[in-house]
Specification:
The chain is built from 16 helices and 21 strands. With about 450 residues, it is of the alpha/beta class. The protein has 3 domains: about 80 residues, MurE/MurF, N-terminal domain (Udp-n-acetylmuramoylalanyl-d-glutamate--2,6- Diaminopimelate Ligase, Chain: A, domain 1); about 210 residues, UDP-N-acetylmuramoyl-L-alanine:D-glutamate ligase, CATH 3.40.1190.10; about 140 residues, Protein-Tyrosine Phosphatase, Chain A (Alpha-Beta Complex), CATH 3.90.190. Strands 8-9-7-10-11-12 form a 6-stranded parallel beta sheet, sandwiched between helices. A 6-stranded mixed beta sheet has the order 16-17-21-18-19-20, sandwiched between helices. A 4-stranded parallel beta sheet has the order 3-4-5-6. It starts with a strand and ends with a helix.
Length: about 450
């Protein structure tokens, strides 16, 4: 993590006003949460729903050495080491960008509509067979999370795997310029954020902003099955040449999976003469593995080490996470987020499960889909196969459209499709319905917080 004298921090963050008697104080690490201060931290007061400036004294009392202070806020505390800045968030980002420029670490930046976190975890596992790796913790992929991640990188780390999320245009560009990725990855283009960006074309443009911060020798790895990316990247390369590597199913891709075999424990596939297996449910994860293998190749990691890393893979929680109930049924917790593409992929993965008596779907609202949100939900329902899925339970005002269309495919009067508005009622029904050797999928957008029903089912 960052360790610098306070005067140096002031310069790196673009601040001013630090009393000279504090110049030689050293900070170790950065935090924005006064509850999580460790001794030696720099505290950065971010203005959100809560105003971080109200917690500066608490942070200092908890062991922070110093704090930033946004000049627009009155009454800065006296006799506390303060660095004054125009905007706390921008200062945090500037500090992180300056720190990244000083590090010899190779940065791999990842964005995309789906698969960012899984791809990040795959690359981390593979790269760790050969290098010291730092990766984004959990989902710290925002305008706040990314700079905090950068500031946690050690001088001894060889590789940093940074996840980049967004909700509007310009955000990926800002993060890319901050991270300066040596390798940039776009996993895929979906329909998340249609409500704010309006079209898949605009979503693709927003994701392509990751190119703006790549180093001069940087490499872009992207889905070659997505025309919105292929055509636009060819245009970008004409104005500013850079190396690009395509992955996907089409023969024209630079890296593609052959002889793919899936089962209830994972997927096996070959890339040329190399044989790989990932212990993840769902054929869609093979595409994430291809992106990870391409990134590993850029680091010079051989095929046998890539295979070793895939075998040792552990995922961030709530991504097709398997939880066995003491009552004998399996919960697949994929409740971190949802889009039409990821929900369809999760349902397909359920069909591959073997050794279970019944397959049960619990599907919640998919949010931020714009004017077409109802049709996206209806389309999910239309494609649920009653021969492969035994029960469909939905939750939420949009989830009901999944149920309305699913009912048309399922035998009438069987009670195999139910729609709920109340989570407690859903839990009651599930506790009455689930039996030993059932498998249940939980899938919905972050705002639905479907993972909260897991303790009640256990």
């Amino acid at each position: 993590m960052i360790c610098r004298k306070l005067k140096v921090i002031e310069q790196m963050a673009g601040g001013h006003g630090l009393s000279s008697r504090y110049d030689e104080l050293e900070i170790r690490g950065v935090t924005i949460d006064s509850r999580n201060v460790t001794k030696g931290n720099l505290f950065v007061p971010i203005v959100r729903q809560l105003n971080g400036h109200d917690y500066v004294q608490e942070a200092i009392a908890g062991g922070a050495v110093a704090s930033l202070w946004q000049t627009s806020h009155p009454n800065p505390p006296q006799d506390v080491p303060l660095i004054f800045v125009e905007d706390s968030l921008e200062a945090l980002q500037q500090l992180a960008a300056a720190y990244r420029r000083e590090l010899p670490v190779k940065v791999i930046g990842i964005t995309g509509s789906n698969g960012k976190t899984t791809t990040k975890d795959m690359i981390n596992s593979v790269a760790a067979t050969t290098y010291r790796v730092h990766k984004t913790a959990g989902n710290l992929n925002s305008q706040i999370g990314v700079p905090l991640t950068l500031l946690q990188i050690s001088d001894n780390d060889d590789v940093a795997v940074i996840e980049m999320g967004m909700s509007e245009r310009g955000q990926i560009e800002r993060l890319s310029r901050m991270c300066r990725p040596d390798t940039a990855i776009i996993t895929m283009i979906g329909v998340s954020h249609l409500s704010s960006l309006g079209s898949r074309e605009n979503i693709a443009e927003a994701k392509l902003e990751i190119v703006s911060g790549m180093t001069d020798e940087g490499v872009l790895i992207y889905s070659g099955d997505e025309p919105l990316l292929v055509n636009r990247i060819e245009e970008l390369q004409r104005s500013k040449p850079f190396k690009a590597v395509r992955f996907g199913e089409r023969p024209s891709n630079d890296i593609r999976a052959e002889t793919v075999e899936t089962d209830s424990e994972g997927s096996s596939f070959t890339v040329g003469s190399a044989k790989y297996r990932i212990p993840l449910l769902g054929a869609h994860n093979v595409q994430n593995a291809l992106a990870a293998a391409a990134a590993a190749s850029q680091l010079g990691i051989p095929a046998d080490k890539i295979a070793e890393g895939f075998q040792a893979l552990t995922l961030t929680g709530m991504r097709m996470e398997k939880i066995m109930s003491p009552h004998g049924f399996l919960i697949i917790n994929d409740a971190w987020n949802a889009s039409p593409i990821s929900m369809a992929a999760a349902i397909d993965a359920m069909k591959q499960l073997e050794g279970f008596s019944r397959r049960v779907l619990v599907l919640g609202d998919m949010l931020e889909l714009g004017e077409q949100e109802e049709e996206f939900h209806r389309d999910i329902g239309r494609n649920i196969d009653p021969d492969a899925i035994d029960f469909v339970f939905t939750i939420g005002s949009l989830g009901k459209y999944i149920a309305l269309e699913a009912e048309k495919r399922f035998p009438p009067g069987g009670g195999r499709v139910r729609s709920f508005e109340d989570k407690e009622e859903l839990v009651k029904e599930l506790k009455c319905s689930l039996k030993e050797r059932d498998a249940i999928l939980l899938k919905g957008s972050r705002g639905m917080q479907l993972e909260t029903i897991v303790p009640f089912l256990l």
